[in-house]
Amino acid sequence: MTVMTIFSAPKPFTDPHIDIIQRNAVQSWAGLGDGIEVLLMGDEEGMAEVAVEYGVRHLPDVACSPSGVPLINAMFSLAEEASASPLFTFVNADVLLFPEIVEIAYQVKAQEKAFVLLGQRWDLDVNHLLDFSEGWPERLRQETVRRGKLHPPGGSDYFVYPRGVWKDTPDLVVGRAGWDNWMIFYAVHQPWPAIDATKDIMIVHQSHGYAHLPDSQPHYGHEETFVNMALGGGWGNMYMLLDTNMELNQGRIQRPRPRFIRFLRQLEHFIFPGEKQGWRWALTRIVRKTRRRITGG
Questions:
Q1: How many angstroms separate the CA atoms of 124 and 296, rounded?
Q2: Are 87 and 73 in contact (CB under 8 A)?
Q3: Is the entire prediction scored with pTM above 0.85?
Q4: Residues 187 and 290 in one domain
Q5: What CATH number does residue 49 fall under?
Q6: Three-class SS state of 214
Q7: By residue range, what is the domain housing residue 55?
């Protein structure tokens, strides 16, 4: 019986470093324990072969943007069509997961019928294939704490949720900025909770360059990033983890604790004028810069 389905849309496996970190990620997902199904979506070069090598499913037929990048709504729909799992996890293809994510998801499911778990990632430089023999989670955790760094609370690299919670999702493009921010916005405005699970769930993002993107530049200035923002309703709907309405603490869902950076984030929402001009926009930028100095990004 499948207890959780994990799905992602990897990049082409042609770049040597991207190949390494994506293979590491897939192995970590497949190594989460019994009842885990892994779906690789898209038809990028090398994906079919990797799926066979690691014994996971390959679903090449997923709707894409004009540039050939999978659409989020198509991926989420395809995951539920392809699996009878009660729980799903979308994760970026360069992210390592630990086995406790499954147990924690079921702890939350016992408390809430509908929810989404998301959280900050740890950034770690990884340049080799990892050893996934017995004891790998503890070795990786120790290495991450020793060499890694907790990423600022921007978007999220993973979403854990039960079947049926995502509806009416626009044609957002994965791998570009903004799609995950809109997902947080959507979740916060539902009757069910958007839960920051950073305290309980560690995920590891394997740092990489941007050779896979046009001009080898980060995705923030990419045309499809602006499409994502427009489809998501603009800058005001680009939520972050500081906007979540619940947090997880030792398996318990609770209101977020009062924090100065959350106050600054609420102040941003209060004064944001809806367009990038005028004195209110200038004041918004001052508050944002202050918040970023505190969070580190």
A1: 16
A2: no
A3: yes
A4: no
A5: 3.90.550
A6: helix
A7: 4-254
